[in-house]
Design a protein that fits this description.
This protein is α/β, with parallel strands linked by helices. It contains 13 helices and eight strands. Helix 7 crosses helix 12. The C terminus is likely disordered.
Length: 274
């Protein structure tokens, strides 16, 4: 059993996406601990305060008691609003505090886009325009081309959590462009897990959503392969197995070939999804 830890800002939003994903993923436990927020307004100052080191650190002991193998800060805006360098510093501090690998939903989007070999993305956000623009800037800092951004301009996470599939379908349809390889829905307060495949069928391309990407980022950190077609194209196919290890005879032949001094030049296996 692989146990992944998530720090989720506030409560009574879309955290019920995580037990749904746990059911769909084989032998994976998703442990969610709620962190304190001042309020759930979509304001830059409020969202950044949710991600200060002290508040994230306060949520770590509960995850440690659960025996998590990694920790993901499951707040998109609470990460990307710090900027590319600031978001790196944020998760570095979280890793030091927790003693396990750490990341955030914001970096999860970057890794997921790269895993799909996507060159251009469209962004569909529930955020007001300035916060949506900050996410676009974060993606561009990662070398990802953003061809369109649509901001719904909602006022709070509570308002977002009340959205159903029809609202979300309207948003992604408005944001999509023919030259976008994938559409991103960054808000972790948005319920999407139960119908992400419907969004992909509607657009005819992959759709990446906040909680789905958070789970995948945890799996990436834990170096755990998992798949479930009901969680969208990012989870739709089994990962390619590692290259087969050479047989004993082949290894002996290589050792006798006089190339032993070149051993350091042979690349080792990379981390899944990076």
């Amino acid at each position: 059993m692989t146990t992944l830890g998530f720090l989720y800002p506030g409560d009574h939003l879309a955290e019920d996406d995580f037990p749904r994903m746990e059911v769909l993923l084989d032998a994976v436990r998703l442990v969610v601990n709620h962190t304190a927020v001042d309020d759930d307004a979509y304001r830059t100052d409020t969202l950044m305060r949710a991600g200060v080191p002290g508040r994230l650190a306060a949520g770590v002991p509960e995850l440690q008691r659960a025996g998590v193998e990694c920790v993901v800060w499951a707040s998109s805006a609470g990460g990307f609003l710090y900027g590319w360098e600031g978001a790196h510093e944020q998760i570095a501090a979280l890793a030091r505090e927790s003693g396990v690998p750490a990341s955030s939903t914001s970096f999860g989007f970057v890794h997921a886009v790269r895993h799909l070999d996507a060159e251009r993305v469209a962004v569909a956000t529930t955020y007001p325009e300035p916060i949506a623009e900050a996410f676009t800037a974060f993606l561009r800092a990662a070398g990802i081309e953003v061809v369109a951004t649509r901001a719904a301009g909602l006022a709070s996470a509570t308002e977002t959590a009340g959205w159903g599939p029809e609202h979300v379908k309207e948003l992604v349809t408005a944001a999509d462009r023919p030259d976008a390889d994938v559409v991103l829905l960054p808000d972790t307060a948005l319920h999407t897990v139960s119908y992400v495949t419907e969004l992909e069928d509607l657009l005819g391309k992959p759709v990446l959503t906040g909680n789905q990407v958070s789970a995948r980022e945890g799996l990436r950190l834990a170096d755990r392969r998992a798949w479930s077609p009901r969680l969208g194209k990012i989870f739709a196919a089994r990962e390619a197995p590692p290259a087969p290890v050479a047989g004993w005879g082949a290894g002996r032949a290589w050792a006798r070939s006089g190339r032993k001094g070149q051993a350091g030049r042979h690349p080792g296996p990379g981390r899944w999804g990076v």
